[in-house]
Specification:
Distance between the termini of chain A: 49 Å
Low-confidence stretches of chain A: none
Radius of gyration of chain A: 20 Å
Number of strands of chain A: 9
Oligomer: homodimer
CATH superfamily of the largest domain in chain A: NAD(P)-binding Rossmann-like Domain
Largest interface: A-B, 65 and 65 residues
CATH topology of the largest domain in chain A: Rossmann fold
Strand content of chain A: 5-15%
Number of helices of chain A: 14
Helix content of chain A: 40-55%
């Protein structure tokens, strides 16, 4: 199945590489042309002249973009090339409403909102978890291609259900980040042996992936991503907007947006989300602002 | 090693049964005598006339009590019977300061603060995780007895370090409860298939024990304990007090205390802590108070 990839960033590029390895990468396109050139020289794959040109040459278009507006712009640009029987799969994280609008713009092509979790490592290894909104028959039809980029593909409901699932996941991830960083900052203040804390807490009812994978690094002051603060902030802004449609402010979402904004203002936007540990430690320092990143 | 158990509640009774099975249960005592009578008839173990009588007859005293004041009262009552070379092990959850005071009151006996996690099931199976403050040599000396009640014994530091560790664990557990219940309430409002949400979120970076073990039950409206709201509330009040000594209010602790108090006022004190799902669902109901428990 001839596949094109639009958006060759930290997630899109490794997905494109896996599709190339599987023999189905037909075209690539990227808004800033340098990334497309790089990947084109690396893989020997053709760069499309435009999104519409890419769509015209492919049976499946995979999108990996940053924000809601980017997706809607790309959908507009794709339109002249879209044709019956082809499928547009959007792996970006956007709002449920934007996914529903994108699905309408995709006609006469089929559309799936298919945000992923598993980060850049999952993208590289092809083990992403994909949460899909759209028609089951469409997912089934392109399953062989999806299985190249994702270790698990879960159909969650109609258009928008994939994005809604991702939003739920990001709310949970925010809360767990709050839980682990607050507890470990408290443990630090109490001068407890942090390695043992991570083991003991991890072995019981408070056990979680984030503690096991980020506990040691955060307490050693290492915040390499992982999942960047700025990206989780963007996702939580989407969650806030989705909750606002129910007239609801979700406490963990509101709180984490404030904490992440403070981190971003202090220069930590590109650190792993476990940098929230800095905020929690600061509670115990009683010394006002973050020292700016040097 | 002749062992006595004081406090024969939901945790103390199964610990006493395991000690009896291991052949080292010498005496029991309980403030309300009925519980002691029951266990005495069940196991054929002798009821001590008083805590001091129990201490005089034993080399090791294991305590399983409810609150800080209970512990200090029992330590006073034990004193006439305490003697050199014996050890008092307190498995209750109290503040670090109370543990340090109890250690002083235990002299000339040795003292360990040894709160546990793993709940009533862990107590029954003898698989509790025990977080211990005190001297390593003392732990080593009584290790064979501790291994009867706990699957894992971790030495965390001097007197009080066991309780400090438990406090850190309870903060993390509170945050994870917040994370899972807020996310699943959001998923419910979004009308997503909750079984798939639990699977998808559980398989990624937001994965955690609580979601895996309480996700399905809470979304089906089942809140059998598990770990009771009133007990976690008590533990978090201790955490709040411990954080206040640093002039710090921990956000998740403050928030969860408020939520749990609301649940307790609505009659849900004896439900599992996953009953926090009720609070989060209520955000989306926009209908004011909880319906009182019928």
């Amino acid at each position: 199945m001839k596949t094109g990839v639009i958006g060759l960033g930290a997630m899109g590029a490794p997905m494109a590489r896996n599709l190339h390895r599987a023999g189905c990468l037909e075209r690539v396109w990227n808004r800033s042309p340098e990334k497309a050139s790089c990947l084109s020289s690396e893989l020997g794959v053709r760069i499309a002249d435009s999104p519409a040109d890419l769509a015209a040459a492919c049976e499946l278009v995979l999108l990996s973009l940053s924000a809601d507006d980017d997706l809607l712009q790309v959908m507009q640009a794709l339109q002249p090339g879209l044709h019956c029987g082809m499928v547009v799969v959007d792996t970006s994280t956007v709002s449920r409403e934007t996914a529903i609008r994108a699905a309408a713009l995709a006609q006469p092509a089929e559309f799936l909102d298919a945000p992923v979790s598993g980060g850049t490592e999952g993208a590289r290894l092809g083990t992403l978890v994909m949460m899909v909104g759209g028609e089951a028959a469409v997912i089934e039809r392109i399953a062989p291609v999806l299985s190249v980029v994702a270790g698990r593909v879960e159909h969650m409901g109609p258009h928008g259900a994939g994005q809604a699932t991702k939003a739920v996941n990001q709310v949970m991830a925010a809360g767990i980040n709050q839980a682990v960083t607050e507890a470990l900052a408290f443990a630090t203040a109490l001068q407890l042996p942090l390695d043992k804390i991570i083991e003991v807490a991890g072995g019981g009812a408070a056990g979680n992936w984030f503690l096991a994978h980020r506990g040691a690094t955060m307490t050693q002051g290492q915040f390499d991503p992982g999942f960047r603060v700025a990206l989780h902030h963007k996702d939580l802004a989407i969650c806030k907007q989705m909750a606002a449609q129910f007239d609801v402010a979700l406490p963990l979402v509101e709180m984490t947006l404030i904490h992440y904004r403070r981190l971003m203002e202090a220069g930590f936007a590109d650190e792993d989300i476990s940098a929230l540990f800095r905020e929690k430690r600061r509670l115990f320092d009683n010394n006002g602002d973050h020292p700016k990143k040097s």
